[in-house]
Amino acid sequence: MLDSTRCLSYWTQAPAPIPEDYRAELGAQVYGCDICQDVCPWNRGIEKRRAGETPDRDLEPHVSLVEWLEASDEELRGRYDRLYFPRNDPRYLRRNALVALGNSGDPEHATAAEPYAAGDDSLLRDHAEWALERLRPLPPHG
Ligand code: SF4
Known about the structure:
Layout: H1 8-12, H2 20-26, H3 35-39, H4 55-59, H5 65-70, H6 73-79, H7 91-104, H8 110-117, H9 122-135
Helix pairs in contact: 7-9, 8-9
């Protein structure tokens, strides 16, 4: 039986913090996964979905993480009204964007996470701090 709590897609849609053990595994993914649909033997014989043809990927194959983090609730809800996210609350999309931002390894992106690391929302603060730990260059050894 599939343990859904070990599924990356599950965590991008869960109303909870993404466990630290899974964050690096998510890489640049901000929503869903669907690799299992591509490798599942039950799908053989069914016209195979090709990369770029799943509904989510059709919707927007590449997203700007910085835009996600700077967009208002209304903008995110309007842009992603076809996606499920818990309680229709865009903070879960921002949580996912913070994880992907940390995985980007690009220190130039750190400024997009900083407001969340200093914010009141403990869910987003935790994920922003995690991202910033990965984005900030290590201090030089003295
Ligand atoms: S391959 Fe399937 S089960 Fe595995 S993380 Fe992706 S969606 Fe979940």
